Amino acid sequence: MPCVRSTTGVPRLITVRVGVLTGGGDCPGLNAVIRALVRKAERVYGDEIVGFLDAWDGVLNRRTVALNVESMRGTLPRGGTVLGTRRGSPFDYDDGVEQVRSTLADMGLDGLVVIGGNGSLSVAHLLHSEHDIPVLGVPKTIDNDIVGTDLTFGFNTAVQIATDAIDRLHTTAESHDRVLVVEVMGRHSGWIATHAGIAGGATVVLIPERPFDIDAVCQRLVRRHSRGRYASIVVVAEGAVPAEGTLDISDPEIDRYGHARLGGVGHLVAAEIGRRTGFETRPVLLGHVQRGGTPTAFDRVLSTRFGVSAIDAVHDGAWGQMVALSGADIVTVPLATAAGQSRPVDMDLFHGVAEIFFA
Residue 304: which domain range? Predict the structure, then answer.
């Protein structure tokens, strides 16, 4: 493959043939990343981009689609992913890694761009660090919990959707003098709950990073009602857990990938608030609506910047890295930074800002 010397001193590939996949849960902005990567690859570098369908299943089974500027037209505002996505990895199979290696070799691919969250990036890291397979990552998750990047695309959209819902729920809560418990996504981190709680004027926000005392929650609501405020919004992340000894909660089911099946803590919290305070309380589960539909303008721009920077990183030979947002800049950081990690909520934001507005 012809090369030139890049500004970093690493040989820059002149043209490449690269595969791309989307892994894990869907997320607003995935198509914008693919579109931007394809556009710069084709129009600037003259590259060829091959899309693998349904994440690693497509790599293992060699199910592909040619990606070009024409095929990606109109996808900027579309949610989901034109490539399809699945959970799972090559490490689920005895010969999975060798299948990945042979797929890249037989198809004449110089490497693979993996757009995914914590799990997908961990797989990408292992493939590169332990098996020397050329992989580059793009961080994606509405949870905003990937270490190494200030923000992930999809997060802004999820927060906006949750905030819009909370705004609407305020009016019905006030009309009926109700407490509404809004459950949002956030398996290990409470970024969505914290930001949507602040933006939506929530009375209480419950996050995984800080186990909650249901009695303290109820006391806040009682104080608020004693001041004549009979409507309250409680925002709870799906991964929030009660402090030890404060509330019994059953262990969640575990799926075939080893992940706890979350969702339902909002119902538990709502039931306990109603039982302990006597206030009319209703749970609201936003669920997958938070990661569906069109991305916000902010996420479209961030996704586009990630896609453009990803193909630049490929040409810089930055395998084993991922693109990331650092301040106002797009940079590359080692995949090892993100692998197996989860970025918790900034507790200065939670204590210093969110809690000021709690009842």
Answer: 3-153+295-338
Q: Are 274 and 320 contained in the same domain?
A: no
User: Residue 143 and residue 190: Cα distance in Å, rounded?
Assistant: 8
Selected catalytic residue, list 143, 299, 312, 316: 143
Query: Structure tokens of 121?
Result: 């990036």
User: Is 132 tagged catalytic?
Assistant: no
Q: Which residues pair with 153 in a beta bridge?
A: 140
Nearest to 52 by CA among 76, 34, 74, 39: 34
Q: What angle do CA 339, 158, 84 make, to 5 degrees?
A: 65
Inter-CA distances, 182 with 206, 224, 237, 288, Å: 10, 18, 8, 13
Residues 20-45: tens digit of each pLDDT: 999 999 999 999 999 999 999 999 99
**pTM (whole model) above 0.70:** yes
The pairing of strands 232-237 and 204-206 is parallel
**Cα(314)–Cα(331) distance, rounded to whole angstroms?**
13
Shared domain for 107 and 168, answered yes or no, is no
Q: Mark whether 134 and 220 lie in a shared domain.
A: no
Amino acid letter, 262:
L
Looking at the structure, do residues 22 and 98 belong to the same domain, yes or no? Answer: yes
Q: If you ran DSSP here, which 8-state letter would residue 110 be given?
A: S
CB 225 within 8 A of CB 247: no
Split into its structural domains, the chain has a count of 2
DSSP state of 10: S
